[in-house]
Amino acid sequence: MRAGPVLSGRLRGAAAVAAGAALGAALGAAVCLTRGLVVVTVRGTSMAPAFRDGDRVLVRRGPRPAVGRVVVAERPAGGGTWPRPPVGAGAGAAGVHGRDWLIKRVAALPGDLVPLDCVPALATAPEQRVPPGKVILLGDNGRVSFDSREVGYFPLERVLGTVLRRR
User: Fold this and answer.
1) What range does the record give for the signal peptide (predicted)?
2) What are phi and psi of 84, to 5 degrees?
3) What is the pLDDT along the chain (167 residues), one digit of tens a residue?
């Protein structure tokens, strides 16, 4: 389904193997600016078996995601920080291009209990609930996924959008 002009852009992301070996997860995308949609090509196996390397998914930018939904989020740099400001809601292809992106499932939203059993990075966090403006993101294939297990919380402002369906 295509509406309006489509601008090409490449979104890149990465995933890390739990054992420490690097596994690239590049995301390719075409941005449909008129409806806030992004077509993303999944690279890597961090979301297997739900999504496999080469799958194309339609992502909607905008509303807050729900627990269990799959999202595209900006990958943090070393130390769980982001060197650039977040991509704004109205940013076009230029604002989205050149960022590192990940595809992950939402495990918890602000106010939800922190699932300590599956997020070791938060085992020493003082909060029992996810703080405002934060989210916990996990890859379905935990053995190879770079996600909240290592990073801890992701800021909601770093979530680009929610995956609507496979294309």
Assistant:
1) none
2) -120, 160
3) 333 333 233 332 333 322 222 222 334 334 444 458 877 778 789 999 999 988 988 889 877 899 999 999 998 987 778 888 998 877 766 677 778 888 999 999 999 999 988 898 898 888 899 999 999 999 999 999 999 999 999 999 999 899 998 77
**Token digits of residue 140:** 């379905």
Query: What residues are labeled active site?
Result: 46, 104
Question: What's the start-to-end Cα distance of the chain, in Å?
Answer: 9
- The reported pTM is 0.77
Residue with tokens 């599956």: 118
Surface-to-core class of residue 160, CB atoms within 10 Å of its CB (0-12 exposed, 13-18 middle, 19+ buried): buried
Q: Measured between alpha carbons, how far is 101 from 146 in angstroms, rounded to an integer?
A: 11
Distances from the Cα of 128 to the Cα of 73, 96, 108, 149, angstroms: 23, 33, 12, 16
C-alpha–C-alpha distance, residues 16 and 144, integer Å: 6
DSSP letter, residue 32: E
**Run of H or E including 93:** helix 93-96
